[in-house]
Amino acid sequence: MENKISIILPIKSSKNVFFKEYFEKSMASVKNQIPYVEELIIVQTDETSLTKYLDEFDFSGISVNRVVWTGVPNFSDQ
């Protein structure tokens, strides 16, 4: 039996000038690891531009669960 992992990706904002570049690189990395990845869990803020970007992103081949975090963004609580 093969072990599978879940990847948790917290995202605070899409307003950084390099966001799209870094996000696309991270998704390419996840896709390269598909045989080992059971799911990608994205913990995101309710920022409008971020939600729109993720709604329109092509996650084909990746099982994605999105969780909206409405509290103060910080890694320990998310």
Tell me the layout of helices and strands.
Elements lengths: L4 E7 L7 H14 L4 E8 L3 H9 L7 E5 L10
Parallel strand pairs: 1-2, 2-3
The gross shape turns out to be globular
Unreliable segments of 5+ consecutive residues: none
What percent of residues are in strands?
A: 25-35%
Written as H for each helix and E for each strand, in order along the chain, the element string is: EHEHE
Structural class: alpha/beta
- For the residues shown, what is the average pLDDT? 91
Count of individual beta strands: 3
Counting DSSP H or I runs of 4 or more residues, the number of helices is 2
- End-to-end Cα distance, whole Å, is 31 Å
Computed CA radius of gyration, to the nearest angstrom? 13 Å
Major sheet: arrangement of strands:
1-2-3
Give a quick account of the main beta sheet: strands, pairing sense, barrel closure.
3 strands, parallel
| Helical percentage | 25-40%
3D architecture notes:
It is a single chain. Strands 1-2-3 form a three-stranded parallel sheet, with no helix packed on it. By secondary structure, it is α/β, with parallel strands linked by helices. It is 29% helix and 26% strand. The chain has two helices and three strands. The mean pLDDT is 91. β2 (37-44), α2 (48-56) and β3 (64-68) form a beta-alpha-beta unit. The radius of gyration is 13 Å and the shape is globular. It has helices at 19-32, 48-56, and strands at 5-11, 37-44, 64-68.
